[in-house]
Amino acid sequence: MSLLTSRYELGVGPLREALSQLVAERLVTVVNQKGYRVAPMSEQELLDIFDARANMEAMLVALAIERGDDAWEAEILARAHMLSKLEAIDASEQMLDEWDQRHQAFHSAIVAGCGSQYLLQMRERLFDLAARYRFIWLRKTVLSVEMLEDKHDQHQTLTEAILARDAARASELMRQHLLTPIPIIQQAMSGKLLTE
Which residues form the GntR C-terminal domain (predicted)? Predict the structure, then answer.
């Protein structure tokens, strides 16, 4: 606890409150007589979170296609263009962060047309829960020319289906797109000891 209080320049009270929030969000666990630990990662959690997220986002893209307007379409095109501009393969954290931010902005632009703040908040929660698994995937894909080209092709195909207002196709493409990281993450997890 003292390490965290000095690192983040916080008192014990605010730090305990923050840790309690992380426990409630299942990102941290309490270990009796030892304090707090990062919650272990598991294949079951990976599958559950990614399945929930893929189904949620597939539903949201269908709603967005039904409700989105021309400005919504223009924002998707702008975000897709910005994401496609990142072609350089660079092992730096800055490159990974930039690609992840643009990727997130592209996906957020797609679902923004759904018109429901409550559904978007639920989506955001699933996105946050998937983050620690996504970062495993991110390191394996963005640093690979082949994987980066594959993702670019998926994004292009998805954008075309959305602009054609083909809700069934766009929903299925979104669902499959969000499930593609699972085997890569499983493979990475099998090579690491992620639980204690």
Answer: 48-180
